[in-house]
Amino acid sequence: MATAGLILAAGRGSRFGGRKMLALVDGRPMLQHVLNLAAAAELDPVVVVIGDDADEIESTMTWRGETRLRNEDPGRGLSSSVRLGLDALSDAARVLVLLGDQPYLTLENVSVITSAPHDASTPIVVPRYPDGRPGNPVLLEREAFAMAASLEGDRGMSQLFRDHPGLVRYVDVEGSNPDIDRAEDLANLSRA
Fold first, then answer.
1. Nearest to 135 by CA among 154, 116, 110, 152
2. Alpha-carbon separation of residue 57 from 15, 65, 169, 180, 189 (angstroms)
3. What is the Cα–Cα distance from 128 to 175, expressed in whole angstroms?
C-alpha cells in the first residue's frame, strides 16, 4: 500500500534560537536529511509544511517534487501544520508524519513502520524504541485523519495516544530518533 509523507517543518525553533531547519547536520541543513529520507523511503506524494523561514528553506533545499505549503501562523502550534498537511493529502490511504527536526531517523525504521499492514481498528501506528517509549514518526491510516486534524496546540501526536489508546498499534524499532529542540542537543549528538 502506497504511503504518503507529511513533513512538519514550520516551527519557529525558539528553543533552538531560530532557523532550526537550516542548521547544518553533517554539512547539510537539518530538513534536507528528512527530505532525503522521505525520497529514499519512496513516500509519495510528500507534503512539507514550512513557516517563518519559508523563503530561505525554499531556496536552500534540494527538492524532488514535494508539495510545499506555508503555515502563515506557525505560532498556533504543530497541530495547525498537521491540519494543513492532512488537508492536502486527503486522497491518501495512509500518511507517515515526519518531523523536520529528526535528521537521525533511519530508513530501516521508516520501513518497519510503513510495512505495518492496514488495520482499520488500530489506524494509528506508533514506533516503540528500545527504551520502551513511543516516538515518531507516526503512521496514520485514513481512518485516523479526522482525529489527527482535530488536534490542538503544539503537542502533536501524543494527544492521539492519550485520547485514543485503543486505536494505537505499536511496532518495535531499533536505535533511537532524537528530537533536536535546542542547539545544545545538536552539539551533543554531533559529538556522540
1. 110
2. 19, 15, 34, 18, 23
3. 10
Residue 191 has a pLDDT of 47
Tell me the angle at which helices 107-114 and 30-40 cross, rounded to the nearest 10 degrees: 50
CA angle 85, 87, 39 (to 5 degrees): 40
Asked if residue 16 has pLDDT above 50, the reply is yes
Strands 124-128 and 24-25, sheet pairing: unpaired
Rounded to a whole number of angstroms, the distance between the first and last alpha carbons of the chain is: 37
Query: Which residue(s) pair with 5 in the sheet?
Result: 46, 96
* pTM of the full structure: 0.94
The fold of 4-191 is Spore Coat Polysaccharide Biosynthesis Protein SpsA; Chain A (3.90.550)
Strand, coil or helix: 21: helix
**What are the structural domain ranges in the chain?**
4-191
Cis peptide before 117 (omega within 30 of 0): no
Percent of the chain with pLDDT over 70: 97
pLDDT at site 174:
94
